[in-house]
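Posting here for the record, re: iron/sulfur cluster.
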Amino acid sequence: MPREILVAEAAGFCFGVKKAIQKAESMDQAFIFGSLIHNPQEVERLSKMKKHIVHDLEEIDGNQVVITAHGLDIKKIEEMKSKNFDIIDTTCPLVTRIYKEGWKLESQGFQIVIIGDPNHVEVKGIASRMKNPIIVYEESDLIGLKPHAKIGVICQSTLLLEKFDKFVHILQGYCDQVVAINTICKPTKDRQTSAALLAQQVDLMIVIGGRNSSNTHKLAQTCQTYLPLKTFHVETASELQPQWFHNQKKVGITAGASTPDYLIQECIEKIQSFDLIVPAS
Ligand code: SF4
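Prediction output follows.
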C-alpha cells in the first residue's frame, strides 16, 4: 500500500508574503531592501526576474525601493525619504498592528518589552518605533531584568506560542503589572497549531523552508516536540533521503510562511517516487 502523505491544513505562503511578492512581480524592475522572503530558492527565482535584494541604498539603480512584509527600522525609512526615494511599502498589516499595540501601551505608561529575535528585521523595526524598549529572546535575557512597575509585552509576529506564554509568566515575577498583547499573527498561529496537530497523527514530519526562515525553524521545533527523531527540515526536495521513509506509513508535511507552493509540490512528488524504490536492507 502506498504511504499516505498529509499536508498541514495551514502551510506555506501567508497572505502578507504573497502580497509583497505580487507587488514586486508587478514592477518591471525592483530593488528590495533586505530579504523580501526568507527562502533562498524564491529569492533566486525573483532575482532572475530583475527583483534585486539590496542591503545598502547605494546599490539601488533608480529611485524606487521596496520595503518588505516584515517592515524596516524607521530610521532607515527616514533616510530613504531624505534621499527622495519612492518607497513601495509592503509591510504586512499584522506587523503594523504590533507598532500600534506598542504605542498604545507606551501611552499608558508601560515599559515596552519585545519578545523576539533582536537581529530580525521585524524586531528592529518594532524596536525603532518604541521609546526605550527592552528586547528579550533567550531565557537568559530575562535574568537580572530591572524591576518595573508596569510592563507592556508585545512580540515578533512569528514567535512560538509556547515561548510567549512562558516569557510572560516569568515577567510577571518581575513587576506588579504586566499587560501582555500576543501579537503573533494568525497565519503563524494557524501554521503552528496545524503542524502540532499533524505531527501527532503521522509517523514522520517533513518541514519545508529556508534555513534562514525563523518561522520555519519554529515549525520544526514544534514538530520535534512530538517526533524528536523523525522531524526533518529541508529546503528543497533534493535533500529528501529515501531511507527516512522506510516503513513510515504516514508522512506529514508542513512549510513556513515563506515557502512557495511549488517547493511543497516537488517534495510531495519526490516522496511519492520513493514508493517505487526498494530500500536497501
Ligand atoms: S508571517 Fe504574519 S506578519 Fe509576517 S507577513 Fe505573514 S501574515 Fe504578515
